[in-house]
Fold Transcriptional regulator.
Amino acid sequence: MADYKLEEKDSFTVLGIGTELKSHYTDYAGINKEKSDFWQAIKQDGRLDSLKAIATNDYIFVVNEAVNNKMMHYAGVMTDESLPEADRVIQFPKGEYLVVKGEAKTSEELSNILTGIAFGQVLPEAKDFAYVGGPNAAVEMGQQNGLVFGEMWIPVVRK
């Protein structure tokens, strides 16, 4: 079983710039390509830098959320400000969160590793808690020793 913890978090909001993922939810290669293309675009056109400029901390949120039966993917930051290019203010509920820590060579690799561990190992094997929907996020927290480190935050409920 992967290393994880359950942690109580206050509600918080993330300002996000997003894209709709059109691949079938079981098409991991298609989803990962869409996410990769999205991140490449917002890095190149400056939208990610615009978000970082108004952030209240150094965290970059990679958020997945179902909105109106659409699979949405966002780059986001914690902030009290707004941006014209931002698509959504994402509300994360107060409550218990599954937290999985990790590190990787790149932001994209970190997000993929954390998502794989959380949804591929921890949640399927969990006996006393479950993910019942709502936004979840891979949170890039910084860099050390040449690696990007962070956590996956998934709201869960006790069974």
In short: The radius of gyration is 15 Å. Residues 5-158 form a domain with the Multidrug-efflux Transporter 1 Regulator Bmrr; Chain A fold (CATH 3.20.80.10). Residues 58 and 141 are 6 Å apart (CA to CA).
